[in-house]
Each structure stands twice: as structure tokens, then as C-alpha cells.
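Hi support team,

I've been running sequence recovery on a batch of backbones for a student project. Most finish fine, but this one hangs at about 90% for roughly twenty minutes before it completes. I'm not sure whether the input is malformed or the queue is just slow. I've pasted the C-alpha cells below so you can try to reproduce it. Let me know if you need the job ID as well.

Thanks,
M.K.
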């Protein structure tokens, strides 16, 4: 089986930035596009960043077993991994990254125990707050919700196979790629 990497970490820690670094250097890696019921941020493209769905469309996928995992994140929106595209890549031996939260990680680990989970941690709480603010993509209420979720997520980091601190981007990207290569 090819490596299936489950990448989690608080909003604003730099998961998206890290994944684009790693895939630029290693274009053979495939990154799953999640489905979500939240609205697109400015600049986000449907089908590239997420598949943006209505509640009804999401429920339809869920009921037809078309999601490998799904969860309610930030107490508000639904997010899930479309099953077909992941299974297809795994069957072809292509290394895959799923950027999902800890609830999704637990679900995938139950059905695919060989999947490797990685928690991306910030160098400090202050740096996480500053990155989230610096990104400027959420209003104060949405940032607050994300930071509430982040506190809970940081407490769960020990559940993951690996913890990578995203301090220096180049060092963290290198570490992530090493984990992908090692497979466990
Ligand atoms: P996530 O996908 O985890 O929500 P992003 O990739 O959107 O996070 O990153 C959040 C912000 O932090 C962005 O503005 C990004 O440029 C910045 N960032 C990411 N990694 C680093 C790093 N190692 N050092 C400093 N800033 C970073
Ligand atoms: P955002 O709204 O900031 O793009 O994403 C919020 C969080 O949702 C991400 O940090 C990630 O943990 C989680 N997430 C994104 N896609 C999925 C998914 O497909 N499944 C699960 N379980 N969580 C996801």
C-alpha cells in the first residue's frame, strides 16, 4: 500500500503552506480535496481548495457512503473526505496526503490502521494567534472559534504518530517529507 498521510493541526499553524512546499518539491504526492459546507474564502476555488457543498449535498454524500470520514469542525461546518479519489490513488500506489482534523484521523485509522498521522504544532500559542491574524482571512468571531478548537486540538497531539513543529518552514517541510518516505 502507498503511504496515506493524515495531517492535522490548528487552523493557521501552516498546514496548507507546508503541503504546498512539499508537493512543489515532490509533485508525485497527491493531496485530497475535501468537501465542506462552509463558504469559499476570497481566492478559494471550488474543486481545487475544497468542493463547496450545500448541507443537502453533503448529507447526500454521507448517506450514500461516499465519504471516507467526515466531521463537524469549529462546532459549525461539515467537512469530509470523498472516498473514491483516495481509494483510486491508494490502489495505484500513489502517496496521499489528507488534511483532516483529529475526528477524521480517528475514523480513518479505524479502517486503515497503516495510515500515518502527523500533528503540526505551532512553535508557541502567541505565534499561532499571530499567524491566524496575519493570514487575514477570518473575522474576529471566526478566529475566536478557530482558537477555541485549537486549544482542544493541542491537547490531543499525543494521539498522533508524529508531531512536527512548524517553526522554520524549510525544516518542517523536510521532516514531513522524511515521514512520507519512511511510511511510518
Ligand atoms: P493552515 O492551513 O494550517 O490553516 P496556513 O498554511 O494558511 O495555515 O498558514 C497560516 C499563516 O501562517 C499564513 O499566513 C502563512 O503564510 C503563515 N505561515 C505558515 N508557515 C509559517 C512558518 N513556518 N513561519 C511563519 N509563518 C508561517
Ligand atoms: P478551514 O475552514 O480553516 O479551511 O479548515 C478548518 C479545519 O477543518 C482544518 O484545519 C482541518 O483540520 C479540518 N478539515 C478540513 N478538511 C477536512 C476533512 O475532509 N475532514 C475532516 N475531518 N476535517 C477537515
Amino acid at each position: 500500500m502507498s503511504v496515506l498521510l493524515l495531517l492535522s493541526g490548528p487552523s493557521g499553524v501552516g498546514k496548507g503552506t507546508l503541503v504546498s512546499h512539499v508537493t512543489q518539491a515532490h509533485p508525485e504526492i497527491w493531496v485530497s480535496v475535501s468537501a465542506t459546507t462552509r463558504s469559499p474564502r476570497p481566492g478559494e476555488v471550488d474543486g481545487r481548495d475544497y468542493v463547496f457543498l450545500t448541507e443537502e449535498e453533503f448529507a447526500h454524500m454521507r448517506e450514500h457512503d461516499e465519504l471516507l470520514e467526515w466531521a463537524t469542525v469549529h462546532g459549525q461546518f461539515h467537512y469530509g473526505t470523498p472516498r473514491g479519489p483516495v481509494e483510486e490513488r491508494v490502489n495505484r500506489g500513489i502517496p496521499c496526503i489528507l488534511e483532516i482534523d483529529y475526528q477524521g484521523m480517528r475514523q480513518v485509522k479505524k479502517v486503515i490502521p497503516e495510515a500515518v498521522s502527523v500533528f503540526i504544532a505551532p512553535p508557541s500559542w502567541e505565534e499561532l494567534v499571530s499567524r491566524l491574524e496575519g493570514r487575514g482571512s477570518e473575522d474576529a468571531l471566526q478566529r475566536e472559534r478557530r482558537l477555541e478548537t485549537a486549544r482542544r486540538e493541542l491537547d490531543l497531539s499525543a494521539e498522533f504518530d508524529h508531531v512536527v513543529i512548524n517553526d522554520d518552514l524549510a525544516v518542517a517541510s523536510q521532516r514531513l517529507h522524511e515521514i512520507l518516505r519512511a511510511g511510518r
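--
Follow-up from support: It reproduced on our side and the slowdown came from queue contention, not your input. Helices lie at 15-25, 55-63, 83-91, 102-111, 125-135, 140-155, 169-182. No action needed from you.
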